[in-house]
C-alpha cells in the first residue's frame, strides 16, 4: 500500500474542488466545468491503476475482461450524464473525439516521446494488424447508420424503408458488441499464445485485492458525481467561453475521459514498449467504437433519451474514417519513427481547428 502515497495521490486534491465550488461557493459554471473535468481525468487514472492491480491477481483471461469492462469507464459515465441532459449530439461528438484523440494525439505523442534517443521503435505486426483491422471494421459499422439516414432522406420512395434510424442503430450496436466479444474469445482464449504480449507492463500487484476493489468502487462513485457537475455546466460553459458544445465534446470531454490512456501510452513508449502503446491507444479507440458507442445506444433507450449512431456531420465521418486509415498505414510496417508521431499529432490539430471553426 506504500505506493498509494505518491504524486497520483497528490493529484486527488483536485477532486473536491468542483463539488466545493458548486455546493459551497456557488462559483461560475465555467470554473465548475473545468474543475470537474480535471477531476475526472485524475480519477480515470485511478480506475486504470485499480483495474490493473485486480487483473494481476485474477489471471490473464479474467484480467483482460476487467480491463475491457473498466478501461473506458470514465468516458462511459461521463457520456451517460451528458446523455441524460438530452445532448445526444454532444455524446456523438465525444465518441468521435475519443477515437481520434487516442489514435492520433495519444499515439502520436507517445511515438514522439518514445523516439527521443532512438532511431525507430518496433512492435508486433500481427497484433497491430489485428487492431487496425478491427478499427476499420468499426468505422464501416459506424458509417452504416449515416449512409442509411442519407439514403432515406434522399429517396423519393422513403416509404419502402422498413426500419428507422433508431432501430438500425440498435441492430448495429448489438452486432458490434457481439463482434467485440468474439474478438475477446479469439485473443484471450483460442489464440492467446499468438497475441500474448512479450512486453510486460512491469510491476506485479502491490495492492491487496480488497484495496483494489475499494479504490475501483469509490472512484466510480466519485466520477459519477463529477460527471453530473460537468453535464450540468456544459451549456453555461459553452455560452461563457464562446466554444460550441460540439467542440467541447470532441476535444475537452474526450480528452478528459482518455487522459489516463494518453499518460500511460507516453510512459510505456519512453520504456520502448511500443506494442503496449498500440494496445492502449488503438485498443482504446476500438473499445470506444465497438463497446462504448453501442452500449450508449442501448442505455439511451433504457433511460428514455434515445440516441442513434447517425453522425450527421460530414466532418465527424471524415475524421473517423481518416483516423482508421492513418492508423492502418502506421501499423503496416511494424516500426515507428518520430516523424510519424509528429504527423499524427499534426493531423489531430488540423481536425481540432476544423471542429473549432465549424
Structure at a glance:
By secondary structure, the chain is an all-alpha fold. The chain has helices spanning 7-11, 17-25, 29-58, 60-71, 73-84, 88-114, 125-154, 165-190, 192-195, 209-241, 245-270, 274-302, 314-331, 338-357; strands spanning 121-122, 335-336.
What does this structure look like?
By secondary structure, this protein is mostly helical. It has 14 helices and 2 strands. Helix 8 packs antiparallel against helix 12 (274-302) and helix 13 (314-331) packs antiparallel against helix 14 (338-357). The protein starts with 6 loop residues before the first helix and ends with a helix.
Task: Annotate the secondary structure layout.
Blueprint: H1 7-11, H2 17-25, H3 29-58, H4 60-71, H5 73-84, H6 88-114, E1 121-122, H7 125-154, H8 165-190, H9 192-195, H10 209-241, H11 245-270, H12 274-302, H13 314-331, E2 335-336, H14 338-357
Antiparallel strand pairs: 1-2
Features:
single chain, 358 residues, mainly alpha, two-stranded antiparallel sheet, 14 helices, 78% helix, 1% strand, globular
